[in-house]
Amino acid sequence: MSKRATRYDNIVEIARRLQRLERKSLEACFARGALPPGSTRARVTTANARWASAAELRDRALEELRAEIARLGL
């Protein structure tokens, strides 16, 4: 049995990627918050950068999902 593509396949793929990226962003957020008081500036800066990077990728996927939904007229 062959797989037939539907017009919703892209939405599902993007939504799954968005879900993975949201988890990664949350993990980075919690890791940043879990830094002990008195952490070095380098550790804080690195944690902030990881969180910002993960959040940016998540936001791009969200915009891609919105664009795909709009393209389909849903």
Would you write up a description of this structure?
The longest helix is centred in the last third of the chain and has 32 residues, at 41-72. The model has no long low-confidence stretch (mean pLDDT 95). The chain starts with 8 loop residues before the first helix and ends with a helix. It is mainly α. It has helices at residues 9-33, 41-72. Helix 1 (9-33) runs antiparallel to helix 2 (41-72). It is 77% helix and 0% strand. The protein is elongated, with a radius of gyration of 17 Å. The protein is built from two helices and no strands. The chain has one domain.
Quickly describe the structure.
This protein is mostly helical and 74 residues long. The mean pLDDT is 95.
Give the domain tally: 1
Question: What would the average pLDDT be, to the nearest integer?
Answer: 95
Along the chain, the helix and strand elements come as HH
Which structural class best describes the helix and strand composition? Answer: mainly alpha
Strand content: under 5%
**What is the makeup of the main sheet?**
none
Helix content: over 70%
In total, the number of strands is 0
Indicate the radius of gyration in whole angstroms. 17 Å
Distance between the termini: 29 Å
Shape: elongated
Name the poorly predicted regions: none
Compute the number of helices.
2
